[in-house]
Specification:
378 residues, alpha+beta
């Protein structure tokens, strides 16, 4: 059994929207207040405060006169917010993330409901404190017999409501495929495959850049806190949502095709943060969103019984001749094709890299070597 989330748009009634906005606001307040208490406890008294302590604080906060409104919403999203804060601190202490930051109202927000705070009956969702079912646009049906274990309601900065239903389902692996592919991530082309195919970067941000610039300039002229300023901010958020949706949609279609067609997929471990330090490339790299592409490949390969091999980022894939194995000393980024001085083979830079990644990935797969960045030599 695997957990899979199904996301849908929904359109709340005016009463439901008021309740949901109150719930999201209370969840944000509890999260920020708990973060402040934990930070103050450490820097002033060198005390560690965890989920148990913040949960006890929540009980006391509900008894105070100025926070009585916390009792008007379900307690489950508030407690889930404290659990998310605990997870954020765990990731920080493990070195996987930065120190937790305060949530802001203009970023929208979310509220998570566990089974005790919602009902799923006859294909309809009833949230706690609400007697009416949510008006969900079922763009695809849930698997037969699937029961959601967790429901997350989210309000985007653009004012759109979405709901995610987390269900436990059995995913059937795909039939074995004889194909295997190496993938090189680029800028002019989003990816180059070892088969010689190049997938063009749709450049979702570049397409909307002029429109976004006009909207941001209009926002900068508005008075802060005014109604017109709020409307202008919503327009900017909508354009950002269009860019994000176009990018994610393209990546989902691409990764699904790659997973369906190939049994083994080899990629190079990415150091995206290091590349973003280059001002000339940071916009194009961010627009390509290669990190999201690899993330989708990872979980889709796990779902459908495929093998994903990640190579050490120190492997000289671009400087190595795929025909004779000769490694050249220098190969500037502006050189897109080159001739091997050893065997006189002409190479397209990106395709040669993809072929080298595939060869190294198959070697790692056969010998069972560690594929994490540990300076393993091939």
């Amino acid at each position: 059994m695997m957990q899979k989330a199904f996301k849908y748009r929904f359109y709340p009634t005016s009463e439901q929207e008021i309740l949901l906005r109150q719930t999201i606001g209370c969840t944000r307040l509890v999260y920020n207040r708990a973060l402040s208490e934990r930070t103050e406890a450490w820097y002033q008294r060198q005390e560690r405060v965890g989920y148990i302590e913040t949960n006890a604080m929540l009980t006391e906060w509900k008894k105070t006169e100025n926070l009585q409104f916390l009792n008007a919403v379900s307690s489950v999203p508030l407690q889930q917010g404290l659990r998310h804060l605990q997870k954020a601190f765990s990731n920080f202490f493990a070195g996987r993330a930065k120190y937790p930051t305060f949530k802001k109202k203009r970023h929208g927000g979310s509220a998570e409901f566990t089974k005790s705070a919602f009902k799923f009956r006859d294909g309809q969702v009833f949230l706690a404190k609400s007697a009416e079912a949510l008006n969900i646009r079922w763009s695809r049906q849930l698997p037969v017999g699937a029961e959601p274990s967790t429901i997350t309601v989210k309000l985007s900065p653009a004012g759109r409501w979405t709901i995610s239903l987390l269900v436990d389902i059995e995913i059937e692996p795909l039939l074995a495929s004889p194909n295997q592919v190496g993938i090189d991530f680029g800028i002019t082309s989003l990816v180059a495959l070892s088969t010689g195919e190049k997938v063009v970067n749709p450049k979702a941000f570049a397409v909307k850049r002029r429109k976004l610039r006009r909207a941001q300039k209009a926002l900068s002229r508005k008075q802060k806190g005014s109604n017109n300023g709020h409307k202008a901010r919503i327009e900017v958020a909508k354009i950002h949502a269009e860019i994000s949706n176009a990018r994610i949609d393209f990546l989902h279609k691409l990764t699904t095709r790659l997973v369906r067609e190939n049994q083994t997929i080899a990629v190079e471990d990415l150091a995206v943060k290091n590349v973003l330090n280059n001002r000339q490339l940071e916009c194009s790299i961010s627009d390509a969103n290669c990190g999201e592409l690899v993330r989708q490949l990872e979980y889709k390969c796990e779902w459908y019984g495929r093998t994903l091999v990640k190579l050490d980022r120190g492997f000289p894939s671009s400087k190595r001749c795929g025909h004779c194995g000769h490694v050249v000393e220098k190969l500037p980024l502006n050189v897109r094709s080159w001739v091997c001085p050893q065997c006189d083979t002409h190479h397209d830079r990106d395709v040669n890299v993809a072929q080298n990644i595939l060869a190294a990935g198959l070697a790692v797969k056969v010998c069972g070597a560690n594929v994490r960045p540990d300076k393993h030599t091939f």
